[in-house]
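4.2 Preliminary Data

To establish feasibility before requesting continued support, the project team ran the inverse folding procedure on a target of 295 residues. The structure was first converted into the token representation described in Section 3, and no sequence information of any kind was made available to the design step. The complete token record follows.
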């Protein structure tokens, strides 16, 4: 009996050390005039279990290494087990030698619909389309993993983006929006197409330089770190010249705008004229934010 409990303990320990994501999923049903809200609570519980219990890779993650992320599903309509709305996906990563956690991904997917019957088990098959609900969540799980890996190693997220692209290719046989090229310019298809395209190569280079060579050095060499971050942002100019206001550029600044302003209005002083001019060109919709950069 003692040996049995030891085996169980070891198995549980391995499982707890293998999960990659620490994900909080919330289901917002305020827009739905539904008297019985239990199905939304049941769905929320099932989604949290799905995201946090599934092993997405063959790598081992210690609890402190799990990637913190959030998914908020806003339900606009619900009828006969059919849901329609949007999903907001956010993730962050720790900064070396600091208690600070930096936002790294912020996406609002407005083409999200699915079917779900209360208490039904959630399945994901990497080789077959089972449901739009699990396919969308799996897609963003791999995007989260890819973006996080890119911030630690140059082009480190390629294997995860390939998994996300595989999901897109399989899901195109379904009738759900967001998976096909002609579904719009802010879709899952467009996101993974851009992430894996050499046409937008600067995005992944910026992720690496900004985080590993920039933020991770803020504690030890703040002045050099700020200069590295500023120079990395300049790389976006070439990408923006080829494709102004691209999806990836918007995605980056949706997550980083507040942080950039804070970084360059404190700490070691540096000339930010060139930086602010570039930021105004790259993302003019955030001009009111760029004006807050004081130095």
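Position-by-position output of the design step:
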């Amino acid at each position: 009996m003692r040996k049995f409990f030891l085996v169980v303990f070891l198995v549980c320990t391995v499982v707890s050390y293998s999960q990659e994501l620490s994900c909080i999923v919330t289901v917002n049903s305020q827009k739905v005039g539904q008297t019985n809200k239990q199905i939304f609570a049941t769905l929320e519980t099932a989604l949290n279990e799905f995201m946090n219990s599934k092993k997405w890779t063959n790598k081992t993650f210690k609890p402190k290494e799990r990637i913190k992320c959030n998914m908020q599903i806003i339900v606009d309509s619900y009828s006969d087990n059919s849901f329609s709305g949007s999903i907001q996906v956010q993730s962050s990563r720790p900064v070396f030698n600091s208690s600070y956690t930096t936002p790294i991904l912020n996406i609002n997917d407005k083409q999200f619909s699915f079917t779900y019957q209360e208490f039904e088990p959630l399945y994901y098959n990497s080789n077959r389309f089972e449901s739009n609900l699990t396919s969308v969540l799996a897609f963003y799980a791999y995007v989260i993993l890819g973006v996080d890996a890119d911030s630690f190693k140059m082009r480190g997220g390629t294997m995860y983006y390939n998994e996300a692209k595989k999901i897109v290719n399989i899901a195109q046989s379904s009738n759900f929006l967001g998976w096909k090229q002609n579904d719009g310019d802010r879709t899952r298809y467009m996101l993974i197409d851009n992430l894996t395209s050499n046409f937008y190569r600067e995005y992944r280079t910026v992720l690496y330089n900004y985080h590993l060579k920039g933020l991770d050095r803020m504690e030890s060499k703040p002045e050099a770190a700020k200069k590295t971050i500023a120079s990395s942002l300049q790389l976006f100019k070439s990408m923006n010249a080829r494709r102004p206001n691209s999806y990836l550029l918007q995605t980056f600044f949706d997550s980083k705008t507040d942080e950039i302003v804070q970084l360059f209005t404190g700490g070691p002083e540096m000339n930010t004229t060139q930086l602010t001019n570039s930021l105004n060109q790259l993302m003019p919709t955030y001009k009111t934010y760029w004006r807050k950069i004081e130095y």
